[in-house]
Amino acid sequence: MADLQDDTPTTTEVGGDYGLPDDPFPDEPYGPADETLRRAHSLLAGHPVADGYSGLPWALRHLPWYDLELGEMSVDTDVPRLREGHVGALFWSLHLPEGLAGDRAVGATLEQLDLVHSVTDSHPEGLRLVRTAGQIIDARNCGRVAVVLGPAGAPALDDSLGILRVLHALGLRLLTLAGTAWASEAGLTRFGEEVIREMNRLGVLADLSGASEATVSRAAALSKTPVLCTRSAARALRPHPANLPDDLLAELGAAGGLCMVPLTAEQTGPTVRDVADHLDHVRAVAGPECVGLSGTYDSGAAHPRDLADASRYPHLIAELLRRGWSESELSLLTWGNVQRVLRSADFTARAAQHRREPSNARIAELDG
């Protein structure tokens, strides 16, 4: 697959209690005068970051050798920096370069799945592949960073619910609903709605970043579990196409969904203050239960100053503390909201599997 040999862009820098134990990760050194940063470290020790998007699997494909437990400066993410940033869980993207579809998209996604399994198996002291909210807690209790598989792109399904079930059996937890005929600018087709129902039955969460407004609205209303936008900020502050307008943010909040604000200069701005402005706005429009964090490291994106890699989360939390965010709001932002969404998906899937058989619907039958 020649497409899989393309170079990955280099990332640059620009201008409630959920059963967690005491933090097993060491703190970043900080100056005694910086009380706010000390408070940020203390808060993250009890409520670590669940990071909604990492491009690490694709970035690692281009390295001849790496050691994430010792430290790897060729990427933005390794175990020492995850611990320094108090990251307790990380969603590993399986997204593909634009243009891959059909068998090629399926094959490339399976290759990335295989790579993730290999990476986590070879770094057992730092990483643990997980499938459920409970397993995330178990990984944290053992001092490991929990790795959650997804989001993957919808083209990887090749319009097949059977392939969705296979990917889920291999560990997939999130699927991005964009880039297909059944989740287009016009919204979800009948087959697209059946995909959502089958995802609910399996416990695969819907990621709506990059989807059309019609798809976001319909999916949020149809899904029995909360939906996520893993890389979306506030369009009112920055008119990026992946950012959400206020009406959709309000809909997402009303449906119990989660908007995970990306730490990228293009979507949020070049400074920590810009990122905090987006977090403030999403909290105000959708509610504190609707906002999360998405590092988007190792994706080729440029990051704001002082947020160059996964170790820098305490600096963002310190900025939010200075703005008056409460500890309960910050605990939801970093950890609690993601745990809520994953637990909801787990519960809904167990219930649905007693009521609903696996769907054998075909796109030609429903949308033909």
TrEMBL record:
Domain of life the protein comes from: Bacteria
Any one of the GO BP annotations: proteolysis
Gene3D superfamilies: Metal-dependent hydrolases
Region (Disordered), start-end ranges: 1-33
UniProt-recorded Gene Ontology molecular function terms: metallodipeptidase activity
Name used for this protein in its record: Peptidase M19
Organism the protein comes from: Streptomyces diastatochromogenes
